[in-house]
């Protein structure tokens, strides 16, 4: 399905940002004991609810927050959701895979320290070790069995100019130099990017953006019956219509908080910039304490319309429907709870093709399986999650009739990343030093091949 507009980015980010994030939790969720969340579980105290007539922005914000909390509760208990809750300023992620009868034949360890701005990688294979290190001032690699313990690398600044004027640059092809130029541009952009605001600042920015959008929009409120599964209660339907200019201003505000999400969704929807400035963008919200459903509609410059619909808290789960130019994609999340066991399916229906991601837990045994027209496979193992890390032991991977493993993955919070003391700037090497390094590497590789 081809949805090419910046407008659709706002479908998930704009009026229902919190809901889109909540839906992401369903990727590994499990059902709440007792199954369906009914009216009693979802309705908030009416005395604490802003008036949808007098304060529609406040009403939608509180309903969105309540919906997010209710979805988290519905999918609580999922070990995969617990993985998403892990937070650490530093830590070590380790991977070890057996090959044939040689346990530990392939291993890797990634260490990070956000406070110091450092990251390290160590891999071990039958051919030897490879070490990588990176911080704001140096990126390098070490091959201990080949070039000794030194880290050879460069400072991630003025990369193209320094490479072009170096002995190493004289050996590089034009394509390689062009790649360094692109790398330099990416590094410069990363340094110039504004920092991500903290939780309190981000919440304040989102509230202000939503309020400004609704102040510039036409909002109508209609009393209505709200359904939660087969239960009903009094609620209301909010309809919001805003022009493209107001949506563009809202998008700019969102970009300050979620720059990565805006880029990730850039390929979806009708082009907001190509649409008429007065083209209405329409959102319909059905709510009473929590949002039970919402639908958003955005016009494109070519006369087409992009639509999104979200339905929450049905007996079967949640459903996301995307429609553009007559094409529809449907994503269904279906959790099933049980005593010490649970299962969850995520189904994507698009263009007549169906893909299913299944998650099943029985005690500590976790199985993830994918069945799609393009590829099918599964991974299963013992998953244990704690407040400070996790382990996924003896995992077997199956794909296309073949299997591999066992694989063990673990994460432990804490620790630090040591900065190498022996570093070499590869762009400062003279022709003589570079030649000596190449001879050293060639000799080591020849010795390994002969042995």
Q: What can you see in these coordinates?
A:
This protein has 451 residues and is of the alpha+beta class. Helices cover 29% and strands 38% of the residues. It has helices spanning 9-13, 17-24, 39-42, 56-74, 79-85, 144-147, 159-164, 174-192, 199-215, 244-257, 259-264, 431-450; strands at residues 90-99, 102-113, 118-125, 128-134, 139-142, 151-154, 218-228, 231-242, 281-287, 291-299, 305-311, 318-324, 327-336, 341-350, 353-362, 365-371, 376-386, 389-399, 402-413, 423-425. A hairpin with a 4-residue loop joins strand 16 (365-371) and strand 17. Mean pLDDT is 76; it is low at 1-36, 100-104 and 264-277.
Q: Helices, strands, pairings?
A:
Elements: H1 9-13, H2 17-24, H3 39-42, H4 56-74, H5 79-85, E1 90-99, E2 102-113, E3 118-125, E4 128-134, E5 139-142, H6 144-147, E6 151-154, H7 159-164, H8 174-192, H9 199-215, E7 218-228, E8 231-242, H10 244-257, H11 259-264, E9 281-287, E10 291-299, E11 305-311, E12 318-324, E13 327-336, E14 341-350, E15 353-362, E16 365-371, E17 376-386, E18 389-399, E19 402-413, E20 423-425, H12 431-450
Parallel strand pairs: 6-20
Antiparallel strand pairs: 1-2, 1-19, 2-3, 3-4, 4-5, 5-6, 7-8, 8-9, 9-10, 10-11, 11-12, 12-13, 13-14, 14-15, 15-16, 16-17, 17-18, 18-19
Helix pairs in contact: 2-4, 4-9, 9-10
